[in-house]
Specification:
The protein is of the alpha+beta class and 395 residues long. 25% of the residues lie in helices and 38% in strands. The chain contains eight helices and 26 strands. Strands 14, 15, 16, 17, 18, 19, 20 and 21 form an eight-stranded antiparallel beta sheet that branches. Strands 1-6-2-3-10-11 form a six-stranded mixed beta sheet, with helices on one face. It starts with a strand and ends with a strand. GO terms for molecular function: kinase activity.
Length: 395
Amino acid sequence: MRFLTSVSHAPDEASAVAELLAAIDTTGLASMLCYYTQDYKPEILSANIKQSFPGIPFIGCSSCKGVMTEKGFHHGPVVSIMAIYDKEPCAYGSGLVDLSSCQNYPQAAVHVIEQALKHADRAGEVPSLIVLHATPGNEERFIEAIDMKFGTQVPIIGGSSADNHIEHQWSLISDSGSTTNGLAMQLFFPSKPLTSGFSDGYSPTEYKGTITKASGRIIYEIDGKPAKYVYKGWIRDHAGEHISEQYIFDHIARFPIGRIAGTVHQQPYYKLTHPLQLIVNGGLELFAEVHTGEEISLMTGSLEQLISRASRVVKEANTKNYRESMVLGAIIIHCGGSMLRLGNKINQVYEKLLAQMNNQPFICPFTFGEQGRFICGENAHGNLMISSVIFYESE
């Protein structure tokens, strides 16, 4: 099993795919992942990839501003591919569904799984890994459906498709087509073992409360008070900053909301979410689902923490590589909001990742929601998170 990444900044879909094809050896190619900026039309991009790489399963999603590989951070316009080479008894299969008229999201997720199993010729089997990409909105439902379908928590790595300015210019692609409102999965039955990691890298502040009224992805009240005023007050009291409703996106990567996901050695670890907007009735709309009765904390993270956390998540995932076998490659999902806050310092993230990966191939889109498997084994959806899967040589 081996990995190869390729990147193109060509301005149109056909030229970009032609450049990628020229850089990739198709002999032994088993699967591909593709990440691209909103500059490309997904339906044309997916059609060109399918024509240029016939019979190869692939999925991918749009990424905020750029993509990162072991070759660097690549500003958009950009299309990037990770080519996965593998031998039998490996299998890979993808599925995609448009959700524009969907009324049952768990059922739609099961449909995509069945598509992917059929394409992999592994009906009735349990994969080693699921790569999940969805447009923002129902990620929790999809994870629940995956866990129920297989009756066990198959490791998931995923990212919600993104654009440059939260203007719904996001999309998904696969060898089955494309969509601007949907779900795509690729099921991995690889010939080599893998490990996974999922973490936040933020710390709780002294400010916390209980959600006393919520529905879906909206918090209406915290401790019986309008949620948006409580949130703004926490930031004012913690950091001495007054945030306006027009510029909330400038603050989300600095002050997310955290919920305890579990504990390790009596120390809590958190699942993060961040506000999408403050709404007129005093509510706080988020990028992830919350529930009445949950305790939440205002979280904060320094730039130094954000710079080092991606390589730390990769390092923590690799600690499960008990034999210290050679790393072959990795898929890494990085939050788009954190990347925007880092600005040019994203290059320091790249340097730390490259060193941690020992220069081996990796691909990293910047997403508006991250899915992964926590240290205690549960799959979850969060925001401002880092998710990783590392493949390594078996003995």
